[in-house]
Each structure stands twice: as C-alpha cells, then as structure tokens.
Amino acid sequence: MAEETLTNSMVAALSVAGKIPFRSKKIRKSSTSSTTAAETSKKPRLILPLALSIAGELDSALRHLTTVDSQLAAIIKSLEPPSFHNLSTPFLSLSRSILYQQLATKAAASIYARFISLCGGEDSVVPEVVLSLTPPQLRQVGVSSRKASYLHDLASKYQSGFLSDSAIVAMDDDALFSKLTTVKGIGPWSVHMFMIFSLHRPDVLPVGDLGVRKGVQILLGLKKIPQPTEMEELCKAWRPYRSAAAWYMWRLVESNGKAAKASI
Predict the structure, then answer these.
(1) 70, 151, 155, 185: least CB-packed within 10 angstroms?
(2) Cα(22)–Cα(13) distance, rounded to whole angstroms?
C-alpha cells in the first residue's frame, strides 16, 4: 500500500466537504456546525445515518477518546475540536478527489474551477454531464487523459447503477471500501479520506496515511513509525471513533513540526 498523507492540495480538496481547522484552544466551540442559508439553497442536503456531523456525535467521540487514552486526552483538551460540514454530494466529492490528486494546491484549484465551469456549475457535476464531456474537452481545462478516464469510469459506474449517492450513504464501511476501490484512480487512501471528510464516518482508521502513523509514533513514543499492519492493534482502544483520533494525529504532527522550527 502506498504511503500517503494530507498534502496542501488534498487539504484544499477536502476543505469544502469537511473543514479541518487547526488552532490553539481558546474558547470551546460547538462540535457541530450548520451551513449558511445560501449554501443550503444551492446544494442538496444529504441525510447521513451515522456521522460525526450529527448533533452530539462528535462530543460523544471526544468523551470516549479522552476516557480510553490519557495521552490523547491531553491533546484533545489543548485544541479546538474538528468541525464537519456536509456540503457536497458523494459524486462531486469523489470527482474533486480525482482532480486534486498529485497536484499543487494552486494548480489543482485552477483545474477544478475550470472543470466546474465546463460542467455548468457544481450542481451540474452529475454522471450524465461528466460522461458527455470528451477527453479533448477535459484536456482543454487542464484535466489529464488519465484523470479524464478516471472521471468517466466513476460516472459510468454511477450510470450503470453500480454506485449511487444514496447507496454510498447507506453502505457500511466494508462494502463501501470494496466498491469504491474498483473505480479507476480511487485507492484505499482516497476512500478513507472520503469516508472521513465527506461522509463523516466515525470509525475510519487510514492505516496507509503517513501522517497518522507519524502521529501514533509521537503519541506512543515509539522508536519507529508503525507499519500499516500494526496500526489496527495500536489504535484499537479508539474504536468506534478512530476518525476523530486520526484527525488529532494530523494535528499532533503539525504541532511537532511547528515546535521543531521554533527551536531552530
């Protein structure tokens, strides 16, 4: 499994579907956040059956994590909690994920904006519209031939009924992982990020993410970064809220990096 972590471009790609702020804790804010009236009117609201964005669910997650892990509890108490916003349809989120892969933030955002314009707006990013766009049309807005084939494969799987927004929301984690990894260009890491930041699934552990693994190393004082095969055992106490714990691992690595720079 390839090692990946959240890069600036990936943060930008995910930021619409799930905000991941990092600030020193000053005033404890509510763990859930609602969209503005304008946002709600523009985008369809998804009903997520089990999500950290449901009122009270993130609070439950943080209570559990502080109870079962005293080391993590100290980190949780020092930072404001993550906030999750449900703004995009699964198809749009997955399309965005494909477009942002392996690109610098500015370049990815520019291509994404042109792609959205080509489709006729974010609300028009639906399988039928994407399939109607030819590879030359997509290349004109900066989408590579490879990513064009990924977008078409995703749209084709929707059109055939293999995937749908409603089915994705209703599937359990294992079934969703199995189905989404059949889409060209969407691997295990991308699925884990989608589950956490777009669907707000509470118990996702991205074992292949280098940042999360580094966070676990720092948290537990390990000599080496744990291997993906070790992560399940090391993090089992965090169940059933490993998504929130993973968020704090990213923040822990960030804070350590800032501390290291400050000491130079």
Answers:
(1) 70
(2) 16
pTM of the model: 0.83
Residue 203 contacts residue 177 (beta carbons within 8 Å): no
What is the Cα–Cα distance from 164 to 167, expressed in whole angstroms? 5
79 forms bridges with which residues in the sheet?
24
Residue 23 to residue 81: CA distance in whole angstroms:
9
C-alpha to C-alpha distance for 147 and 135, rounded to whole angstroms: 9
Residue 5 · residue 209 · CB < 8 Å: yes
SS3 79: strand
Which region, left, alpha or beta, applies to residue 185 given φ > 0 means left and ψ of -120 to 50 means alpha? left
Alpha carbons 16 and 3: distance in angstroms, whole number: 24
Q: How many CB atoms lie within 10 A of CB 251?
A: 22
Tens of pLDDT along 86-109? 678 999 999 999 999 999 999 999
pLDDT tens digits, one per residue of 32-80:
333 334 343 444 556 666 799 988 999 999 999 999 999 999 999 999 8
Of 246, 258, 257, 244, nearest to 82 by C-alpha is 244
